[in-house]
Amino acid sequence: MNSFWSVAVTLITIGSIAAFTFLLYWCSKDKMGKEEGESMGHSFDGIEELNNGLPKWWTYMFYMTIVFALGYLVLYPGLGNYEGVLGWKSANKNVQSIAESKAAAAAEVGIVQYDVEVRAADAKYAPIFEAFADIPVEELAYNEDAVKIGRRLFLQNCSQCHGSDAGGTTGFPNLTDDKWLWGGTPEDIKHTLLEGRVAAMPAWEETLGDDGVKAVIEYVLSLSGRRGLDVKLVEQGKQKFVLCAACHGPDGTGNKVFGAPDLTDQTWLYGGSRRAIEDTIRNGRAGVMPAWKERLGEDKVHVLTSYIYRLSHPNQ
């Protein structure tokens, strides 16, 4: 935080503790001019108020909490930008990338709680993942222990886009069927997870014009067996589809090298309605699958690959 807020937080914190200390001291003194235990002169519902001070145990307990608070603020960060005597941190908050995070963890500057927990987890679980790494994906996919671990990895890292059931949603593919843009073999899936994928469908409105876009839409709809189409537009769109064939193939069945989808089936990543297809052709699409190699490591990716492979191959 900047200097202003650092000073403000420090003053508010120290001021609050000082105010509470003074209030506790003030309340522990007899200011009524009466003897201890003497009646205060009024009662309610048969209960008479007496001049009694605060219980000693209660007072000492609060003084102990104040001492604890001051000790904590000296040892740990809590006063603005002050880092504490122990140098403890919850995490390396100034890092800008995974590489910087790993470098900071390797340097072991101060006590970073997150890094301590990660090292402890790696020491405990790394041998398990190393053992799984020697088992082929096709076999590991039916190892129930590996499947349970893979499911946890999926829920933690992949479900935000693909859904907790891996059924996908608009713009994010369903991983439980047999439709794979980049290939569904264990090698293909693992490569996708390790290196990520970047797909780009260019916008064609300027190149084709409004009439050309409408014609291509009609032809694309015909590829998947739609009925009631304008035959004349379909023929015009077929001629213009040569621009699309470089990626989707001359018959529209797609190309896994480019991640270009098959246009002849009923699987549509961004929607198969006329309006959705028009938006795709006019404005293009840009899809990015992040790489998980640096974040998870190859051994964990191997287990995650087996789980994803199992989703589309439920039976051995």
From TrEMBL:
One of its GO terms (cellular component) is plasma membrane. Heme c 2 binds at M201, C244, C247, H248. GO terms for molecular function: electron transfer activity; heme binding; iron ion binding; oxidoreductase activity. Heme c 1 binds at C158, C161, H162, M289. The chain crosses the membrane at residues 6-26, 60-79. Its cofactor is heme c. Binds 2 heme C groups per subunit. InterPro entries: CcoP_N (IPR032858), CcoP_N_sf (IPR038414), Cyt_c-like_dom (IPR009056), Cyt_c-like_dom_sf (IPR036909), Cyt_C_IC (IPR008168), Cyt_c_oxidase_cbb3_su3 (IPR004678), Cytochrome_c_Oxidase_Subunit (IPR050597). It comes from the Bacteria. Keywords: Cell inner membrane, Cell membrane, Electron transport, Heme, Hydrogen ion transport, Ion transport, Iron, Membrane, Metal-binding, Oxidoreductase, Repeat, Respiratory chain, Transmembrane, Transmembrane helix, Transport. The keyword Lipid metabolism does not apply. It is found in: Cell inner membrane. Pfam families: Cytochrome_CBB3, FixP_N. Residues 145-224, 232-312 form the Cytochrome c domain. Pathway: Energy metabolism; oxidative phosphorylation. SUPFAM superfamilies: Cytochrome c. GO terms for biological process: proton transmembrane transport. Component of the cbb3-type cytochrome c oxidase. Belongs to the CcoP / FixP family. C-type cytochrome. Part of the cbb3-type cytochrome c oxidase complex. NCBIfam families: ccoP (TIGR00782). This is Cbb3-type cytochrome c oxidase subunit. It comes from Echinimonas agarilytica. The gene is ccoP.
